[in-house]
Amino acid sequence: MIRGQRRLGMLGAVLGTATALVMLGMICPGSAVAAERPTGKTTPDRSLRSTTDRQPFPIDASPLRMRVETRDGVLVVYDAAAPPEADDGCWGYIGYWLSARDKKKYVFPAVLHEEGDLPTVLLALERDLGVDVEAIAATDDRVHGALRASAQPPAEDLVWEQATLLRAVEIMGIDPGDDPDLNEPGGGQTASLGDCGGCAAGIGPPRNCGSPAGLAGEAFAVAAGCCPPPGGGGGGGGGGGGGWDGSPCGHPCCAGPCNCPGDKDCNGILNGDDDDVDGDGISNGEDSDVDGDGISNSWDSDVDGDGLSNGVDGDIDGDRLRNGSDPDIDGDGTPNAQDGDADGDGIPNGSDPEPNGCTTDCPGACCTKATGACASKKESECTGTDKYFKGKEVPCTPNPCCAFGTNNPFNPQSASAYQVDPTWTWNEEQCTYGVTKAERITADNITISAACDGTQWCAVMLTLNAQYSQGWRLLPGQQEVTGPGGNTTSGNFCPQVEELEALGYASAACGGSPPATWYMLEAVRQHEFVHSRTAQTQLEGIAPTVESRIESLSLCVDHTPGKTRNMAIDEIRVSAGFAAEVSNAQSDWFRALPPAWATDHAGETDIREYEVVDGMVTNICNVSRAQCWAYCPACPARETGSCCNPGSGTCSIITRCDCIAANSNYQGNGATCGPPNPCVGACCPNGVGIGPNYPCTLTTASGCSGQFVGLGTSCTANPCWPPG
């Protein structure tokens, strides 16, 4: 039997256990499966430990329930003591994730209880650490089905976190100080661990038998395989925990830890970076059991214990020689040329697409553009326009990928100039009716997002705002014109009209002659409103330029593993480049406004003021004409018509008011004095026969002693007829 066949057989046993027990961790008492385990809060047998668990984690010695190895790392699920608040007769499970890249373990802060828990935990693993959960689900159809049918979105406040012993104990519901099974001398669980003399003497410091914490530490040491459980050697219940491996961290039965997770010899150097992983004084390249796990390199699926399976490890034996230049890639003592499985991955060279291990097409970070999810795949497997390859042997933890963002063109009309409190005072503007002043564009006035292209985040402008201030008033000593019925009289109407028509005189202090007395506040407000619209228009005009500078390459930052969009935005916003572009935007706006406001004064502001004052002027002038107030040159010229003197009958063309003043009769606007004269008419004498031979005279109505024919009648065709 060659090594590959044996190793694959072991892996098959592991996956077989996993498929059989995945659902077991989701069923409560009452079912046939759950009946295989005791009910209630019972402390699991910490003396059991599966020989297939080559990544010991000192949190629980319960039977291994699941172990799935992927390129991203290893998922392990153990039995766990149910926390007191979850003591519902349903056995819980605790799991951890061993990252293949950073060699760290992560734990999910919740015990698995229900059917949907495991899929939810897997989704959280994908969300938090960028793990390809499809690779885990693919190991078993039931896991895949549960992931699709039962998965609930993971809670935002439950995230995978780097594991610590205390955190794991807390999650498991174990209190080393209170658990009677741990601190009851000579009985309970302590008995199953052996008494104080159960371990070999004279190797390292003595055990601390009197302290509950010390006994708890011993239990965890046994779980980690540092110390043989009672009965020696092989461990209880078929667990095969192995014995103390002689590592320099001291005898395992002391209260201190041993076989530190990810750091075999507890020297502070992670296995993947340690030239002597197991601390036995033999460098990795010369050591027949590099990681000191009791499995010789020839049979070990992870020779250097760095969490990467041999087939995907760029330095399988941890000797600091990359596989491509290592004469003995798997460190088994057989040169590559004579080794039927040079990379020790269980696949004979002839069938192995990479017989020398990871040399050319090494797994690395395969990123999904839309979501930023990371999966460990070879570059040849990372295909499709929706994917991009971050690099060979680039880990997925922390996530090196980023979700590609879109950069839609900024709509200039969405820019907004808005009014704020002024920074100036009227003391600075003593001769001014109104003020519109550009105040500022600040960093808070320009909001950005960030778009990622896989290597860098670049700013995307979302909003552009600007601040201006305004004020309007009547000048000191000036009054608001309120019109007829208000403060307009026959004595002041003409000055009011004149000042309104002039759009306000200057005050005496500012050289006004005559000085300002009358105006309307609404006219000033409308004037300034024109300037505020211009401020908005000019901001819209500079928006494309501001956008192009904000979104230039000068405001891009490198994407590094774990950097999120919000982190990139924050980094850009505090950069000197962003501050400079904010200042440039303000300068652009400030430069554009003065000439634009000068154009306002060339016409638009006057038009808006006249729209206000013209109505008042018309009203005042109409009333002054109707009331025959004194003539005001600022009002329109008054209309004339014929005016008849009732005494003399003379006709003159004058204004209505002048005709009234002459005690005469106004015939109406536009009426003429003839001929015929509208002020006299034909008069036929009384007592005289009427006819062609009888006299007809033109006279006023009051001057006719006979029959008055009517004003405007003529004697040309003699209306005086003979008697009938």
Strand content: 15-25%
**Record field, number of beta strands:** 21
Helix content: 10-25%
Low-confidence stretches: 1-62, 82-91, 175-259
Helix segment count? Answer: 14
Structural class: alpha+beta
Spatial strand order of the main sheet: 1-2-3-4-5
Largest sheet: 5 strands, antiparallel
**Radius of gyration over all CA atoms, rounded:** 51 Å
Task: Kindly report the average pLDDT value.
Answer: 73
Structure description:
With 724 residues, this protein is of the alpha+beta class. The chain has helices at 3-21, 117-129, 133-137, 141-149, 165-172, 180-183, 188-193, 212-223, 493-501, 521-550, 565-573, 576-601, 604-626, 656-661; strands at 64-69, 73-80, 92-99, 105-107, 161-162, 363-368, 374-378, 387-392, 416-419, 434-440, 446-452, 456-472, 479-480, 518-519, 556-558, 640-644, 651-655, 665-669, 681-684, 697-699, 707-711. The strands form 6 sheets. The protein has a 5-stranded antiparallel sheet with strand order 1-2-3-4-5. Strands 9, 10, 11, 12 and 15 form a 5-stranded mixed sheet that branches.
